[in-house]
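Work through this:
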Amino acid sequence: MMRRTLSILVCSFLLSLATNAFAQVVNPATAQQKPEAPQEQSGKLHTWEMPPITVEGKAPLFEEDLIGDYGQPRWTAHRRFGETRVYVIPKGMVEFEYWLRPTFQKDGEPTKWRSLYEMEFGLPGRFQLDLYAVANKSGDDGDFVVDTQQVEVRWALADWGKIWGNPTLYGEWKQESGPDTGELKLLLGGHIVSGWHWGSNFVWEQNTGDAKERSLEWTTGWSYSARDAKVGVGLETQLALVSELENGVRGDSSKEMLIGPSIQFRFIPQMHLDIAPLFGVSKNAPRSKWFIVFGWEL
């Protein structure tokens, strides 16, 4: 009896092993795949698609949602002012911009025309890289000639809102047909109350020619969201003190002051159109300087 019971147990054990072994040997052609866990959306998100990172409450306006790795408002992802820059674009963002920038002179001098073709790249670590090809011409006749290349790098000191004014350092080098030019800026910007945004830049610019022309500038911009993420209106100013080196001595500065309105249209999320005509209000300033910028996020 004991031997029979033991035989039954052994047979049951062997049968269990055989069953498990057979179950594990599966024909790959008929194997069933395990259901995959839901995955996050692949590919990069454009700035208008990025979900807000605010977890408590919601920003009053869509363009004031905080987005991206740096927790910045959505409106800072694109150029808002013609002359004044604010912060950096989000990491991974790529944008193309075309500029038309005519400067209308006084006393019958020919108009200076400038076209800029710019690619912007949002880099990790709160860096931004911009590459430009620039075409110029003087007067209304003739063709534009691409004679300038520019490289611009920005670095924000901290994530958005960690330091007042969100300070950002800016360096640019222009390789021109004449003397090259270096430029350094301190970018500041933020919002006053919901719907109202501001920016301010302090600029040092100097070329490498014999005269070593130097320009010290202060630019400002204010904007109001007339229609959330669609239309913004504002005011911009530019003050420049321009001087040259003569016989080893820097001469007196020529003051150029311009002021004018600005407007931005965003007909579709990936596109912006900025128009900012600034008018000279000082003796040495040009009659007007126009900033017309078309941007497209890639």
